[in-house]
Amino acid sequence: MLNNLLLELFYNFIPKTECQHDKVSPMSDGEYCPDCGRYIVNEWYITRCKCCGVRLQSVKKGESIIPAEKFCHNCGGSDYYLEKLSKIDFVNINYAVLIKRAMEDGTFVRTTQCWQDEENEGSPVLKLLPFFEKKHNI
């Protein structure tokens, strides 16, 4: 475990040329980074043992997520799988790893709905204008 911790510290102190999006809140689903201006989506992952399904503490090693220990503390298995969480909660916060993904331009579309006033028998009626949403691929 100490080796994995040292590796994680080593990877964190390597000079990086890209923005790390440190000012993006980990509690938001996604927001714009004030440093680089890109839209950042927060994704939470936990590792689970393939044999017994128990949660394992995880570390980020480069671009991959691996368990902090080589073997499961419950059954001794070495196989694991990643589970993506839709939201982080206080139960999983000690096991989860945060990945901040920068969305490319054109992968999402924002739409706005507007109200339009129409005259109908002397009184204004509010009508919702239709909007079209383009599905995005992540």
Query: What count of helical segments does DSSP give?
Result: 1
Order of helices and strands: HEEEEEEEEE
> What low-confidence regions span 5 or more consecutive residues with pLDDT below 50?
none
Quote the distance from N terminus to C terminus: 33 Å
Number of strands: 9
Which band does the percent of strand residues land in? 25-35%
Biggest β-sheet description: 5 strands, antiparallel
Our count of domains comes out at 1
Radius of gyration: 22 Å
Structural class: mainly beta
What structural keywords apply?
138 residues; mainly beta; five-stranded antiparallel β-sheet; two-stranded antiparallel sheet; flat
Concise summary:
With 138 residues, this protein is mainly beta.
Please tell me about this protein's structure.
The chain is mostly beta strands and 138 residues long. The protein has one domain (2-15, 26-109). 9% of the residues lie in helices and 35% in strands. A hairpin with a 5-residue loop joins strand 2 (39-49) and strand 3. The longest helix is centred in the N-terminal third of the chain and has 12 residues, at 2-13. The radius of gyration is 22 Å and the shape is flat. The chain starts with a helix and ends in a 10-residue tail after the last strand. The model has no long low-confidence stretch (mean pLDDT 79).
Show the helix and strand layout.
Layout (H helix, E strand, L loop, with lengths): L1 H12 L16 E3 L6 E11 L5 E2 L1 E4 L2 E4 L12 E6 L11 E6 L12 E6 L2 E6 L10
Antiparallel strand pairs: 1-2, 2-3, 2-6, 2-7, 4-5, 8-9
